[in-house]
Amino acid sequence: MRLKTSLLKESKHILFVVMEHICVGWTTADELYSSSEDHQILKWNLLTSETSLIVKLPEEIYPTDFHWFPKTVGVKKQAQAEIFVLTSTDGKFHLTSKMGRIEKSVEAHKGAVLAGRWNYDGTALITAGEDGQIKIWSKSGMLRSTLASQGSPVYSVAWGPDSDRILYTSGRQLIIKPLQPSAKIIQWKAHDGVILKVDWNSVNDLILSGGEDCKYKVWDSFGHLLHCSLSHDYPVTSLSWAPDGEVFAVGSFNTLRLCDKTGWSYALEKPNTGSVFSLAWSADGTQLAGACGNGHVIFAHVVEQHWEWKNFVITLTKRRTMQVRNVLNDAVDLLEFRDRVIKASLAYGHLVVATSLQCYVYKNWNTPLIFDLKEGTVSLILQAEKHFLLVDGAGLYTFSYEGRLISSPKFPGMRPDILNAQSVSLSNDTIAIRDKSDEKVILLFDALTGKALGDGKPLTHKQEVLEIALDQCGPSTDRKIALIDKNRDLYLTTVRHLGREPKICKIGSMVHSMAWNDAANILCGIQDNQLTVWYYPSVVFTDKELLLKTLYIKDGSEFRRAPQVLNYIGTKVTLRQGDGSLVYSSVLPFPALLHEYSISARWEDALRLCCYAKDQSLWACLAGMAMANRELTTAEMAYAAIGELPRVQYINFLREQPSKESSLAHMLLFSGQVQEAEAAFLQAGLIYQAIQVNIDLYNWERALELAVKHKTHVDTVLAYREKFLQKFSRKETNKRFLQYSEGVEVDWEKIQAKIEMELSKERERAANTSVRSSVASRR
């Protein structure tokens, strides 16, 4: 990825440009306004390369900052989107129309107003001044509050993603101040020189800073340093996040740099511009404009982006041209587009390209399927095997690869503009979205209807969730979602849980990124700087003690600092290292084959594969898969192969059960599903067995409750309770047990006889059921 820059031969501004900004209220994303000390506001049309004067400002107005009113809030378009705020050296800010007419001028600070920024929904404006004050104003220009006052000028200010916090500079320090008076302020020394510029992205929640120490830095919202650049030759005078938060740009003297969100540099340009005083991205994130100290406005377009899938590599060579290369035979195809390419995605044998006006879907490179887009600013494309998801400023849309709109999920407080690949996930039947208003909540939708799954209740985790990912294979009833929370713990849970509380199981810790395999439900992730592959993560629901035996761990010595998993296709995991380089790691093909055999119930083939591979982790996977599918013979052999003799004995115990219902309930117990096992016993009329389960697990009160409710085996519960207390030389203190023990005599001989009678009834019932089944089959 690099920047393709362009400059006019002659500058249109006299003196130097102080601030320019790309209008977020465009319809074509090809119009730019700039302002300068020559008192001119110019409009730049990138399609016609024409520049026109909008207005000549009064002589006393020397602009310092410039920011357009937000175009949309969530999915609603703003009615007031045709104005911008212009700050100036005379201590005022000016609300100015698109035609250049000053609607209102407000006395804001003593000395110059150095920065002015609308919040994300346009309900408030913040200004920072040379007098060290930070003030918040209504959108009509009425003063709401003075947020801070300090002894040094505030050179730059930025809103937090939810517009509830402010980031500003204070000499060499950065300060995050919440709008709530009682909330804690975060303050830290960020640079060795005065900080000149900051930016805070609403999608990834990361902070940029640059200053006179000639460095730029990336921080999280708690003030933890994520990246520090090497020292440049000159101070960093400007920086800006792209709208989607994937890249950012940095400006310095005769320098323009494009960087990844983790901090490493994609490209470095050395234009003859003087200092780049401000930078602004177009709304679609494909174009960048910079205001330069020599009076020029520099334009840059992001090109040479790469997408890979199996044997295909696709490169964006120009704004409207892609090159497709088949690495197997070196065949090259060129794809031409009518409009500028904004986003693209390559997966599952399909290339999806969003331009400013249309969407192209390629299955072969000759005949794309084309349909028009309602909104031109596509910010995210996600693909599954059967369909894909487009996210733009107006909403989320699921399309088939034939171009048919399938669904459009909606929910209260929806803000599509801040969604990214970590907060949204797609499978063939499910869409998962992390709720921005409460990051512990994951909203689940049916991909085919757009309606909330099940009873409409979302999935709620105990901690804030950072990343989510749905598995891609298997039936919809067995769909799983993996999530990483703010403690960097990795959890797995089911998506469809039929009214029950979802069981959220921890399967890893210190996990920094993850990805599901495209062809099997195998999960990989970077765990404590090692590559870990969970061959069969769902085993945690069947036999969680097997989980550690189903892992493949690759030492992290070959990876540099902070590698990130990009994808897991076939047997190849693609990782991006901390310095931006790509590393490929291969995984054995046997686990994916084992998943295929399990889904198609080819247990003989699965056994032969494990015998051939002679890998303990494969045997452990097979044991879990067989138990999940109630294939006891295969499970017994697999457990025996890994030396799990107690489980082999339990499988023989399952076979000895007199009825199918009893066997099923004990299998649920094996998986730790106690409530489900109890319900299975009760549904089959096996009251004693349901009571005995709770006795064995020392759930004494539940055992007594069942006995009293069904008026049977109260003496059995009391007898076992008494035996338990005698073992520990304790006396009964539970009032409920004392109440029932008064009128009940404990006689172990009678209890044993009663139990034998219950078991013989169950065997007799099972035999009658078997006879009836055989007679019915003969008929």
Spans of 5+ residues with little confidence (pLDDT < 50)? 16-27
Give the distance, in angstroms, between the N- and C-terminal Cα atoms.
71 Å
Helix and strand composition category: alpha+beta
Whole-number mean pLDDT: 87
Q: Give the biggest sheet.
A: 4 strands, antiparallel
| CATH domain class name of the domain at 20-71 and 81-302 | Mainly Beta
Q: How does the overall form come out from the CA principal axes?
A: elongated
| CATH superfamily caption of the domain at 20-71 and 81-302 | YVTN repeat-like/Quinoprotein amine dehydrogenase
Give the oligomeric state.
Answer: single chain
Q: Give the second-level CATH assignment, the architecture of the domain at 20-71 and 81-302.
A: 7 Propeller
Radius of gyration: 32 Å
Strand element count: 57
Helix content, binned percent: 10-25%
Strand content: 35-45%
Specify the number of helices: 12
CATH fold-level topology of the domain at 20-71 and 81-302: Methylamine Dehydrogenase, Chain H
Q: Major sheet: order of its strands?
A: 1-30-29-28
WD repeats: 106-138, 188-220
Domain IFT80 second beta-propeller: 304-590
Keywords: Cell projection, Cilium, WD repeat
GO biological process, one term: cilium assembly
